[in-house]
Write a structure and sequence with these properties.
This protein has 10 helices and 12 strands. Helix 5 links the parallel strand 3 and strand 4. By secondary structure, it is α/β, with parallel strands linked by helices. Helix 2 packs across helix 3 and helix 5 packs across helix 10. The strands form 3 sheets. Strands 3, 4, 5, 6, 7, 10, 11 and 12 form an 8-stranded mixed beta sheet that branches.
């Protein structure tokens, strides 16, 4: 007989192991000891009278009963979170903006703060939606911005997201580069043929951005630059760029960098579909304000208009609104 009082903690541990298929990684994700997680899984198996995992020295796999339990456990946990949220005072909303400089995400956040002055919307600045999305799915972050359609499908399925802007792309060039030219003057995409352009290759936090660049460069004679040291802050970025001398693919809002010029790309104008991302089933008045802000800005500034002749990646569908 299936018990009716299975603790959410046991289901949460089961879901983490089922998604990671690795007890050590699942324990780290939940911030618990591996031994404690293993005890909880065994306790759940005894309560249900079913084995949920096949464990060997090399792998962990779900049993048929584990496969059957996984979607049900996710539903129970989502309902539990919804119940808790309905009777809890909303805490601060943690929003990752990817960069501390100007960005569409920052503009949305500033508008949301005006719309909901009673909400605490806390900004964080870390590079890469791939990393931020995993943090959201794990409950350590609430909202992020980036190219959501480029995320791994399994991770994307756990998120909700809405389109914010089709961001024009540019290239950042070191002064003295053959294509540097005047700052702000458009550069035909064909002018980069034969160049090696950096787009975050080798950085596990920015896989979605590297994938976008790879698709854009394909068939145009533009090579993707090999991995370079991940630079944090303007000075380190400038130093690494001066060393490699490779152009860097950026958005038109990317902060100005000393010793560099930024030229918007044209013929065609490549666009990156920026989305706002959050966890499915998550609710917060600050999230509502962010959605209202994004929608208002898109209407006012034409952020979701696609100029004729523009380039967009194949996977441009922003995905489900809400969640």
């Amino acid at each position: 007989m299936i018990p009716h009082d299975v603790e959410p903690r046991l289901l949460r541990g089961f879901v983490a192991v089922a998604e990671e298929l690795h007890f050590t990684r699942a324990a780290a994700r939940l911030y618990v000891a591996q031994q404690a997680l293993s005890r909880d899984v065994r306790r759940l198996e005894r309560a249900l009278g079913a084995g949920l995992f096949v464990r060997t020295t090399r792998a962990v796999e779900l049993t048929p009963d584990g496969e059957r339990l996984l979607p049900l456990a996710r539903k129970v946990l989502a309902a539990h979170e919804e119940l808790a949220a309905a009777f809890a005072e909303p805490g601060p909303l943690l929003v990752d903006l990817n960069t501390a400089g100007p960005s569409s995400g920052r503009t949305v956040l500033e508008r949301a703060r005006e719309l909901a002055p009673g909400c605490e919307l806390m900004a964080r600045f870390e590079s890469g939606l791939t990393h931020a999305a995993a943090e959201i799915a794990a409950g350590r972050l609430d909202v992020a911005f980036g190219y959501a359609a480029g995320l791994d499908p399994a991770l994307r399925a756990r998120l909700a997201y809405t389109p914010v802007r089709y961001e024009p792309l540019a290239v950042l060039l070191p002064e003295g580069h053959a294509s540097a030219g005047p700052d702000g003057v458009p550069l035909p995409l064909a002018a980069l043929a034969g160049e090696t352009v950096y787009a975050g290759a080798g950085n596990p936090r920015t896989l979605e951005w590297t994938g976008l660049a790879r698709e854009l460069f394909a068939g145009r004679g533009i090579a993707l630059a090999p991995p370079a040291p991940v630079a944090v802050g303007k000075e380190e970025f400038r130093r690494v760029m001066a060393k490699t001398r490779n152009p860097v693919l950026v958005t038109v809002d990317f902060p100005d960098m000393p010793g560099c010029v930024k030229r918007p790309l044209t013929d065609p104008v490549p666009l990156s579909p920026l989305a706002m991302v959050w966890r499915r089933g998550f609710g917060h008045p600050g999230l509502d304000a962010l959605m209202d802000a994004a929608g208002g800005l898109a209407a006012e500034r034409g952020w979701l208009e696609v100029p004729p002749g523009s380039w967009l990646p194949a996977a441009l569908t922003p995905g489900p609104r809400g969640g």
